[in-house]
Design goal:
It is a single chain. The protein has 15 helices and twelve strands. By secondary structure, the protein is an alpha+beta fold.
Length: about 400
Amino acid sequence: MSVDDQLSRPIEAIDVSDPGLYEADIWRPVFARLRNEAPIHYCADSAFGPFWSVTRFEDIMAVDSNHEAFSSVGGVSIGDRKPDFEAPNFISMDPPKHDAQRMSVTPAVAPTQLQKMEPLIRQRVRQLLDDLPEGTPFNWVDKVSIELTTQMLATLFDFPFEERRRLTAWSDLATSSEAVGGSMPDEDRRAGMFEMLDVFNTLWQERKSRDPAEHPDFITLMANDPRMQKMDAMEYMGNLILLIIGGNDTTRNSISGGVLGLSKNPQGLKALQEDRTLIHGFVPEVIRWQTPLAHMRRIATQDIELKGQSIKAGDKVVMWYISGNRDESVIDDPETLVVGRGQPRRHLSFGFGIHRCLGNRLAEMQLRVLWEEILERFKAIEVTEQEVRVRSNFIHGISHLNVVVTRY
């Protein structure tokens, strides 16, 4: 489908759930039209069923902050889960169960833990960057974005380090679902998820005798928390998927997005090289510009009016973070990755309310450390060919980004 096809349709026929829009990177003018003509938009016919789209910044904040009227129960991606393979997790729960399960794993990313982890992250980043080839094209996504985030995931789960790429594979399987426009055969995906569950069941049994104060990894925390003991196998799987995706995709795609964005704005790279203090504001700006998760879904729990539109109880309501982060009425020059932007934290990528991203500070720390070390080593990172993007309406990702680096 071309962008002209979408734009030439009557407004009621626009369908922003089409994963091809994101794979081809042609979504911007379609959302601009919705923000202008129908900011609360109803799509009656899509591959994922009927749904409402919320596309402006302030309206998304209003929905995201109102979990009483807009529930995440049933899943946060636009497509429905198959009844015989439901894997609930705390992001797809309402209070009080949501609060108890989220609090169980929060110590793994508490500020004191981040302070302890930063030297390890910096050591890994330095080694990773020092090992990159100079003058030879390579895939930045694989060599840097995936490797760095996978190392961090292994630490958060205290997963066998030499097997860490299994975490990446499981994350990719989990996000290849037909519910977000992926094409992975369902049998293959399920087999991979049950393999993951078997591995983590073994880790759960091993970690039950650990002291979580000394080992605050995700599995030890869950295995020793009374609030998590009533989870069945599918709920445990769901929380594993949530934590793996949460620790992987946001950071991975922001790492890639920062390099891509600066390739389109060389003056921004020059500004960072001249003033390293700009890194602190640059990190949240990258996360806004990339918007690693394109949307989050809710279900209306009651009949409610939103900006003049009558939403019925049971309707799907999709908050398009990727559009809200491009809302011209809130963000100046939203299509540019601006180094030195005022109020860079004013973005939607982490969500709002009770479901705000659990590991947002960890993601920011990883990006900050990475860019501090990049700027110490490289005077240029040249993107040598068109990037390859993920086919998904949920994960706004880059799967291949060929670059050449030049050292000082």
